[in-house]
Amino acid sequence: MSDWVHAEAARIARRAERELDALVAVSSPSGDVHGADEAVAICIALLPDQAEIERLPCSTDGYAADLLARVRGTGTGRVLLLGHVDTVVGHDAHRRLERDGDRLIGSGTVDMKGGVVLALGLLESLAARPDGFEEVALLLVTDEEWRVGALHHAARFEGFDACLCFEAGQGGPNGEEGVVVKRKAAATLRVSATGVSAHSGSAPDRGRNALLALASAAQSVAALHDPRGPDRLTVVPTMINSGEAFNVVPPSGELYCDMRAEGVAAFDAVRDAVPREVGGAALEPAIVRLWPGMDARAATAALLERATGVLGRPVVGVERGGASDASHVASVVPVTVDGLGPRGGGAHSPNEFVLTETLHSRAEVALALASALLKIG
């Protein structure tokens, strides 16, 4: 292993647990402006002194401003470090950091405040070697978990040599250090139902039941679930809301379905499979969230090979089904590597955790990639 990677990973790991504790102590569910501003303030406090700080308007209206920090160097090469500070868990269910054996448990630990800590550590390591780069930028957004549209900032990084995203890490097929270089496209299908209300006891047949119509629509789209097919399409009905009272035929409602596929074109067939009328209730489908896929396997192959040499153990590209802001950036920065955060599990659940040791081992991976990119160390 490179001496620089070895030394800097140890430095990052010594501080990582304390910094993660501070970040997780802040409840910052997506859309909560105060929580996001508090989390961003902690990140700003952890930036290297020479960082230029800018708050950018978030891609989602009404959210706290995103954070862009830039460190200028005297060398060549521009690299973007990418992450988000918002979480899924709401204030009522928020869990502060606690240690349980080899786990650090807390809301947002693995998705993705653990990754944010590693990105901040890498930025400080690079800032101490300004001759090794022209610019290193850190972008932390506040709306990744619930954004429905594009990442508006992606275009400003066109021309950068690489993007390193710090979503949760994972292993390779044979226990190697895995980094994410391929992600499926993701979309959300919303089906709105309009029926007719009626007393469910005295006049049930005068109504047009929106709930039953939505249930039928859920069955229709779920029948297209085909993860082993050519599009590797998954269709999962996840939410249904209908009804106003226990004794009234539901006159309206909504169904939501999560969809993943190799490409966005596959989602049109799911939308078109929704019947426009069931039992007299009208159904209107719409795709309300659409994120592109990412396939950086070819563009990153040489980089992963060089990083393997720097690290002294294999770094391999893997695939994940989950969406990430890396997919938005990959369209303008072809050399995009994701999944550089610590390993863990339970994302979006009360028992979310990171494995403590991986704060060290994944710092080594991120440093090896940066060294391979910028020829530092």
Q: If you had to describe this structure to a student in words, what would you say it looks like?
A:
- The protein has 377 residues and is of the alpha+beta class.
- Helices cover 30% and strands 27% of the residues.
- The strands form four sheets. A six-stranded mixed sheet has the order 1-2-6-3-7-17.
- Strand 18 and strand 19 (353-355) form a beta hairpin.
- Helix 1 (3-24) packs across helix 8 (358-374), helix 3 (109-127) crosses helix 8 and helix 6 crosses helix 8.
- The protein is elongated, with a radius of gyration of 23 Å.
- The protein starts with a helix and ends with a helix.
Mean pLDDT: 96
Order of strands side by side in the largest beta sheet? 1-2-6-3-7-17
Termini Cα gap:
10 Å
Radius of gyration: 23 Å
**N-to-C SSE series?**
HHEEEEEHEEEEEHEEHEEEHEHEEEH
Number of helices: 8
Spans of at least 5 consecutive residues whose pLDDT stays below 50 are none
* Overall geometry: elongated
By secondary-structure content and strand pairing, the structural class works out as alpha+beta
Helix content: 25-40%
Q: Per DSSP, what share of the residues sits in E-state strands of 2 or more residues? A: 25-35%
Sheet having the most strands: 6 strands, mixed
Number of strands: 19
